[in-house]
Design goal:
The chain is of the alpha+beta class and 509 residues long. It has 13 helices and twelve strands. The protein has a five-stranded antiparallel β-sheet, with helices on both faces. Strands 7-9-10-12-11 form a five-stranded mixed β-sheet, with helices on one face. A hairpin with a 5-residue loop joins β4 and β5. α7 packs parallel to α8 and α9 packs across α13. Bound molecules: adenosine-5'-diphosphate. The site of adenosine-5'-diphosphate has 19 residues, from α12 and α13.
């Protein structure tokens, strides 16, 4: 036995842990590694959508109000400027925003980039706000007067919100995205729409997720472990118990019963093993019976032969032809028995091959009848044979002879008071059916399936008219099975039995 095989418990556990690991890995990848990318994509999408919405409302009277609404909703800074950079409308725009344009070169480069890219361009910039000193730049703006910073409508609110977004020390890692789009209103005036938003997810969120992830992992592993434990117990317990019973079966205790009801597969396995146990028990019983019967049947003629031979040797005058005939008859009986045993063991071992030929089936039956003619003359038995025409079959001639012989032999053995046996050949389409009927005591319904077993006897003490080996029906059944022929018995207790089989007719050639 291979003790290195891991048990079902270990396997289920390993699979579940593996499954959990994959899940956690996926979760970690999506939630922690990819969070940044997802967030950026979503933010960029929002920017584009916001731009679309603004464009749809560009001629509206409530444009400014609408801008504020959008800016609040998505946490955006919005600036609509002339091409030279003069702010026309704005929302949530602190002075140090990335899109608070004040240098004409910068504005020109934005416009140029957008023109080269179908009218819009999106890029990322470092930091939450532009890192500059407002006053200093004011003095540098020579070519164009610096914008009069348009007073914010809610300056306080803006500042508060922006300054709360990111902890001061994380400000340097922050990234913003700027979306620039060239637009034109219905009057034909060109403007530039600039939208910016922070796209670095808040560090605190990631930290929360990380901690959550640790908890989730721990819970998952715990769940997987308990689940593995429960599943493996459910699966393995009935199997372990079945194994225990099967060991008893292997030791030759055929009375064990497998009573696992757990789940379908185990239930089916139990039924199969139950069936195997019953069959093994039956087979063992038959084996014992066979041995007992064979020894008994061998001993009887041997005793007779010895006794007669001794009498003939010791007592003068006893050496009569009748006595010698008894010795010869008993020796023949032994031969029949030994031949039948050999036949059956060959048939059952599967070494017998059919020697098929086209032959006259009806003549074959007449030959069998001939063999019984002496008996019918002496003992008053009548064997009727009813048939219309001679038919041919393609089969093993000798083996079919054996089948017919055994069936008629049994019918005579178990014939009723009338000592009559009726053999009937019926042709139906391309099938010939042979029936052997007696009017004897019949067979009990619950014995019917057993009679084909080797050496099975319904009545252990029956007297035989003709010597049989007790293996007859077993030989019949094995031969007919080899021919793939249908066969069976119809019997009613007290009225008699009809044994029958069917063969295909040989094709006319
Ligand atoms: P046996 O030599 O005992 O007849 P078989 O194998 O030929 O052995 O038959 C098996 C058993 O089937 C018989 O012992 C008998 O109980 C039953 N049997 C067979 N043929 C008949 C029959 N024609 N009528 C009643 N019982 C029969």
């Amino acid at each position: 036995m291979n003790h290195k095989k891991s048990s079902i418990k270990v396997k289920v556990f390993m699979y579940l842990i593996g499954f959990t690991a994959v899940l956690l890995l996926l979760l970690w990848f999506l939630q922690i590694v990819q969070l940044d990318n997802f967030y950026k994509k979503i933010k960029k999408n929002q920017l584009e959508k916001a731009a679309e919405k603004l464009l749809d409302n560009i001629d509206s009277e409530n444009l400014e109000e609408y801008m504020h609404e959008l800016a609040d909703k998505y946490d955006l800074s919005i600036n609509i400027t002339t091409e030279s950079g003069k702010s026309v409308y704005k929302a949530n725009l602190p002075y140090n925003s990335h899109i608070y344009i004040y240098k004409p070169e910068q504005m020109a480069s934005f416009v140029q980039k957008a023109e080269a890219n179908n009218g819009s361009v999106m890029f990322e910039v470092g930091g939450r706000y532009r890192d500059f000193d407002f006053k200093e730049t004011e003095s540098e703006g020579e070519s164009l007067p610096p914008f009069e910073p348009i007073p914010d409508k809610e300056p306080k609110g803006d500042k508060e919100r922006f300054s709360d977004d990111i902890p001061k020390d994380k400000e340097e890692d922050a990234v913003s995205v700027v979306y620039v789009r060239l637009i034109r209103n219905t009057n034909g005036s060109d403007y530039v729409l600039l939208i910016s938003s922070l796209i670095t997810p808040v560090e605190a969120t990631i930290n929360t997720l990380r901690i959550q992830f640790v908890y989730i992992s721990a819970i998952f592993v715990l769940l997987a472990t308990s689940l593995a434990f429960i599943i493996s117990r459910l699966v393995s317990r009935p199997i372990v118990r079945i194994n225990e019973s099967a060991k008893h079966l292997a030791d030759g205790n055929f009375d064990v019963s497998f009573e696992e009801k757990g789940y379908k597969e185990v239930w089916e396995l139990s039924r199969t093993l139950d069936y195997a146990a019953v069959e093994l028990g039956r087979s063992e019983r038959l084996q014992k019976e066979l041995l007992a019967n064979v020894s008994h049947d061998l001993r009887t003629p041997l005793t007779m032969i010895t006794a007669y031979a001794e009498v003939m040797r010791d007592i003068p005058g006893e050496n009569s032809p009748e006595n010698v005939q008894v010795v010869i008859d008993e020796a023949k009986r032994l031969t029949v028995l030994v031949n039948d045993l050999l036949d059956l063991s060959k048939l059952q071992a599967g070494v017998t091959e059919l020697n098929r030929n086209v032959f006259d089936f009806t003549t074959n039956i007449l030959n069998v009848m001939n063999r019984f003619s002496k008996l019918t003359e002496q003992s008053g038995y009548t064997i009727k044979f009813e048939y219309r025409d001679n038919v041919k079959v393609y089969a093993d001639e000798y083996k079919i002879y054996q089948v017919v012989y055994n069936l008629i032999n049994n019918a005579i053995n178990y014939a009723g008071e009338d000592k009559e046996v009726v053999v009937k050949q019926i042709v139906h389409g391309n099938i010939v059916r042979l029936q052997v009927t007696d009017h004897g005591k019949g067979i009990e319904p619950d014995e019917l399936e057993n009679i084909w077993d080797r050496y099975y006897k319904v009545d252990k003490n029956h007297k035989r008219a003709v010597q049989g080996s007790g293996l007859g029906l077993s030989i019949v059944h094995n031969i007919l099975k080899l021919h793939n022929a249908k066969y069976g018995v119809d019997s009613s207790v007290g009225k008699g039995s009809t044994f029958w089989f069917e063969l295909k007719l040989a094709k006319e050639e």
